[in-house]
Every structure is written in structure tokens, then in C-alpha cells.
């Protein structure tokens, strides 16, 4: 096998490992929300993993800076929330979780995800 | 970002000093640059930065200092959203037009077979580079804008795939154009593929344009509901009619409505009568006649008469506001069937990128010459054809259309899970009173069996004929029954009290009143211990009814509920054996839609049962009238839940249909609780499905809607998964060794664009489903 083919094969395998590591093995930093927290919506959610207290109202302020259609809605199925996020506006979603656990939220097309840990 | 100005009503101000408190509170909110409050108009005007503060925060801040801000978002939000969406769509359309024109020109100048007909200038690679560059970096800017921050978060979506795919095609073509000698030196023809990059961008944007337009249709129902809200109300204040914004109407206001006008809020008619079109809220197509004392619902339309009504529910408390909230919540919920799509989509894009790398390596190492070109084009095809959007849209779009369709027809579905469970139902239990029947029973027979026991000496009647004496005894039965039932809230009690009022029979004072659940009532009237109730009560009090059993059974077999009145002289220390004094038969009319509703369910292969506290004979008679074969009679209110569970243990998926208030535990125990509701909080909370139209045929319609929605979801998921599972391998070139077939990246982009549109369109087809 020619050297270029060997190199392509090696880089290909490395590329696959890198893709796996880059997208699927990331560790999310949990950000603790007190009464309210700003979540920047740009290529995902920042912060992506939020910890909120149980039984208390927490205000999640979504500010969408990304014009992508995908992110124009945020859906929090466990809290029965579907909100339109106008560009560059702060939209507050109030949640009062009744039970502890891990609850997901996502964009309207279910491409970008975030997590809420209720403690 | 420019600042915005918002004016909204404030309730609860009592003096001018409130103004200062409110201004201070509002000004302190981060993002608010100025706030002025007008005491006279009870309004606040706030200038704020929308990027820093959501106007909804004003409500909670104002509430913290003891006032109420009426920041009505509803209709305005929808208008603004619509404008914003239109702006986005216009910009998208421009990008589509420019990229398809430029892409078309490049394609003409470069596509084998076509290029010979093209002017020489279009065949020039440098010209193609110039034409392709704005498409790649202006029209396609959105893909990069989404990709870069996503990569920063170590996430990826469809934009990432398109950005990588088109950049590879554009980058290779640009390299070939700028450095043709280098390409030649490795034995390749220096031929660019700008057409691939530009046409892909044009077609994907075109797909997005149609998708966005179609997606707007999925949330149409909620927009329609919000649009139903009236904007102003004509209230009587200080003897004058004044038109005020709807958010300033307060409970107790007298509102005047003229023919053709929209009723602004919920209330009770105090003067006048009219025929009202409630179809927009309840789905009921025929206008309803309303008189003094009847309730009217906000957002419905007054057709003929003029009337005044007292506002009883305003703002977020109105039925329309509750319906909107419920539909919004349902559309934000997730159906269990979506779990699999969720799982796949969380790994999808990284897996596609890995497959694209595999494709490149395989084609480069084992493919035919020119290997680099084949590997590049096939890698681009894999990246472009993958469509995670279709999977993401498959379930939610159908849920949105399904729940919206339900709401338009007076069927409110609490969440996606209920919608999903409803299609599995194979047993429906109806509560009798108020559900199958109108819940407004009327007295049909009064029989005196022992006048001596109940004669009321305090009423002096003088000398009477036998006929008069019989009539008096009958009146006494009704008088005692009405007296004792006066304090009861049971629907049978209402019938007795109403009959007494109509016959102008005065009731007597009652002491020691006691209601015995599932039995009846007892109390002391005119020195007599009175018991009024069913057989169970008579058995409990050892009252013999044997001599009258045939009369009782005859009435019961006619579907009437027989209440027995027993009495004995009252002694505080000891109880004396009571004797049966009279019988009162009460009949409730079966709803017009009951039989049809039951038949519709039976046609769907669903077993229909009836549950009631009535005795077996009465229950059987009613069940026969409506065509129900399985009857649970003499069930105490607290036992209904247990009966529901018993049927569930038979392996059935059970729906319980009740009024949502008395049946709350049974509704909660059932797999699906259906409330024939009035839109009250209690009913909506307890039920999975609320039928605000009170039409029994809607039970089958709701189940049909669920079946249809689930079929749409399954078809969407099958299409979305099937599309990706079958076409990604084709794009990788799996057919090439056998048939020599390869997928041109341009066709890949056509397939991708149509795939998500077809999912949305399939969901929109639900709109055409006739309920």
C-alpha cells in the first residue's frame, strides 16, 4: 500500500477517535443557579448543565444570540414548557421542580441539549 | 440593541404614594432605564432593554410590593413573533434566490453535457470561484454561525454537517482553481466542483424556507386561540358605558354586549338574553340560547340580543386563558414514543461525521481513480444526506397539530403522554349522573304510603275531602323531603327543592342534619326524625319496605331513582323505629348525544361500561337506553376508583369519563381520565382529557384523534429513520461495487431538503382529519 494510503488510514482512525472523544466524551460543568440564571443560546446552551434547588422557583433567563432556526424554541418536556426565543431578547422561564432528579431540555428540533439537575 | 417601551395596567394602587413605590421598584430592575406610573390611569410605562429583561419579570417584581401588573403578552407577542418570522423568511428567500441563480450559472458552466451550451465566461474557473464565494460565505454564513459556537460547546447539529460538507467541496474547488499545477502533478484533472457547494447551499436553504413556512402551520391552533381574545370591553362605570382595554376589566364589572360583538371575559348574564356562538371555544357548532343567570364565556360571539353580564373571571382566570395555557403545556410535553428518537439524535451527528471519515478512507484506499475526487465527493454526499432534523421534527410537529386540532373541537388534551395512551384504550367507563344524563333530575312520582307518620299538625288545614287529604299528604312528603334536602348539594336534592319551590310548598326548619355518603340524609323536622335516601339507608335504619317493593321496582325499571322517606317521632335520648312514609321517584334525562357516543366507541371495538351509585334496576334501565351492556351499580363515590382498578386488572387500558369534580379519584386512577368539563381548574387538573363541548361523541373523537396522531408519528419516525438508515449507506457508495451507482452530492441535498419537509407536511395532514 502506498504511503499516502497508509497515512489516510491512520489519520482516518485518529479522526474517528477524535470525533468520538470530542463530541461524546465531554464532561459538562454543572453551574449552580440560585434564584435565577442567564442561559446564552448560541450553538447550544451556555451553561449547558444547571443545578437548581427543589421546591423553589428558579428563573431561567434564555437569551438567544444564534440566528439558527433550530434554536428558536426551547422545550422542557418535564416542565411542560415550549417557548419561542426571539433573537437577542431575554425570555424568562420560571420552574418550580417538585422532585429531585435529572431533567433535560432541548431546542425545537432536538439537536441541542441541556440538563437541569434538581437537588 | 434598541430599547423598548411598554405600557401596562397596574391594579391595587390606593394613593399617590403607591406611585413612588412602584416607580422605584420598576426602575431598580436590571435592564429598565425608566419607569413612570400614572395613578389616574392606573398604568405604568417602562423603557427597557429586551436583551436584559423579560417584561414578564415586571409582574413578579410588582407583585413583591403588593400590586398587580397586567403585562398582557398574548396577542402582541404573537404579532411580534409573526413579524420577526416574516423578516427571517424574507432574508432566507433572498439567500435562496441568489444562491440558486449563482449556483445555476455555475452548474451550467461546469456540468458535463450542459457546459458545452454555456458561454465561455461561465466555464472559466475563476469566474466560478467569484460566483461561488458569496454563496458560500454570505448565503451559507448561517451554517458557519451555528457551527462555530456549537463546536465551542463540543456539540454538533445539521448545520455542522452542511458547513463541513460544503466547505470541503468549496475548499477543494478553490484549491484546484488557484493551484491547478499542483493537482495536475498528482495525476488529477484540475476540475472544480463549485456547483456542488453552491447548489447544496441553495437547495438546503430552499428546504428550510419551505420547512419554516410549514412549521408555522403546526402552531397555528395556539395562535388562533390567542387571536380570539377580545381587545376591549364596554363596561358600565358610574352609570356610563366606557370602552376600556380588556386587561382593565375587574371582577364584578358589568359589561354590555351588543349583537355581533365578542364577549370580552367570562361572566354571568344579569340582564337581557341572546343567542351565543360558542364554537370557537367549545367546538359546538350550534348557537346556544342564554338568559339571565346563565354563564357566558369570553371570546365567544354574541349573535342576536343585547345583554349585560357581571364579569366573574378575568385575565389569566378566563376559560380561554386556561385553554391556551393547557394547549401550550401539552405542546411543550413529550410523548414516550419520542424517547427512541431522542436517544438516536443525541449520537447522530457525531456518528455521521465518523461515517464520513470512514467513507473518505475506504474510497481513498480502495476506490477507483481518481481516488481523492471520489473520496471527497462521497464524503460530502454522506455529510449532506444525513438528516437529523426529520427525526427531531417527527414527534413534536404531530403532537402540536394533534393537540391543536383537539382544542379547536373542544377536546383539550393535557399532555403528549395522554394523547399517546388514548390510542391504546379498550375500555371506557362512563359515570351516569351528569355525564350520560343531563344531571338535572326532575321529580316524576310522589307516593304516600303512610300519611299518619308524617302528618304535620302545625299546618292547620280545617275540614277536607278525601281527595284534598291525599293531596296534602303528598305535599307533606315533598315538604319534609325538601326541608331536609335544602342543605344538601346532591343533584337529586336540587330536584326535590326545586319541585317544592315550583309548587309553592314552604319548607320547615331542620336540625341535626347529616348527609350519609352513598345512603342519603337524615335530620329532625317538626319534631320528627326523618330519613331520606336509598334502600341502603332504609336497611341501615331497619325500615321495612317489603310491602312496597313491587312499586319501587316498577319505578326503578323505568330508569327512575326512587328515594324513600321514613319518619318516626323524635326523642333525643332514644331512637324509635322509623316507618316508611312515602316514595319520591326522580328521573334524569339521558343526553341526546349519549347513545351515539356509546355506539361510536363500540364501533371502535371499545368495551363501554357505566358506573353509578344508583341501584341495579335503575342503572340497567338507563344503560339499556344508551346501549351499554356492562353496568356497575350501587357503587359508593369512594368505591369508583376501586372499580376502575378492577377493570385495569383484567388487562384493560381504561378511560373513566366523569364530570371531573366528584370523580376526581376515579379519573386519576384510570389510564385516561376524561372530564366532561366546564373548564374549571379542578376538572382540568384531574383529567387527562377535558371535553369542554360536553358532547359525548367527543370521547370517541378524542380516541380517534389519538389513533390518527400516533399513526402520523409512527409514519414520521419510520420515514425519518428509514431515510437515514437506507440513504446514508447509498451515499457512502454501498451500491457502487454492485451496480456502479454513486449519489451525486447535489441529489443528496435534494433528498435531505425534502426529507424534513415531508415530515412536517405529513404532520400537517392531521389538520385535514375530520373529527
Automatic annotation (TrEMBL), chain A:
The keyword Transmembrane helix applies. Residues 16-118 form the EfeO-type cupredoxin-like domain. The chain crosses the membrane at residues 6-24. The keyword Ligase does not apply. InterPro entries: Cupredoxin, EfeO_Cupredoxin. It holds the Pfam family Cupredoxin_1. Keywords: Membrane, Transmembrane, Transmembrane helix. It comes from the Bacteria. Gene3D superfamilies: Cupredoxins - blue copper proteins. This is EfeO-type cupredoxin-like domain-containing protein. It comes from Candidatus Daviesbacteria bacterium GW2011_GWA2_38_24.
UniProtKB/TrEMBL annotation, chain B:
It is a multi-pass membrane protein. Keywords: ATP-binding, Cell membrane, Copper, Copper transport, Ion transport, Magnesium, Membrane, Metal-binding, Nucleotide-binding, Phosphoprotein, Translocase, Transmembrane, Transmembrane helix, Transport. It is an enzyme of class 7 (translocase). Residues 4-70 form the HMA domain. It is found in: Cell membrane. It catalyses: Cu(+)(in) + ATP + H2O = Cu(+)(out) + ADP + phosphate + H(+). GO terms for cellular component: plasma membrane. It comes from the Bacteria. Gene3D superfamilies: 3.30.70.100, Calcium-transporting ATPase, cytoplasmic domain N, Calcium-transporting ATPase, cytoplasmic transduction domain A, HAD superfamily/HAD-like. Its EC number is 7.2.2.8. GO terms for molecular function: ATP binding; ATP hydrolysis activity; copper ion binding; P-type divalent copper transporter activity; P-type monovalent copper transporter activity. The keyword Transport applies. Belongs to the cation transport ATPase (P-type) (TC 3.A.3) family. Type IB subfamily. NCBIfam families: ATPase-IB_hvy, ATPase_P-type. This is P-type Cu(+) transporter. It comes from Candidatus Daviesbacteria bacterium GW2011_GWA2_38_24.
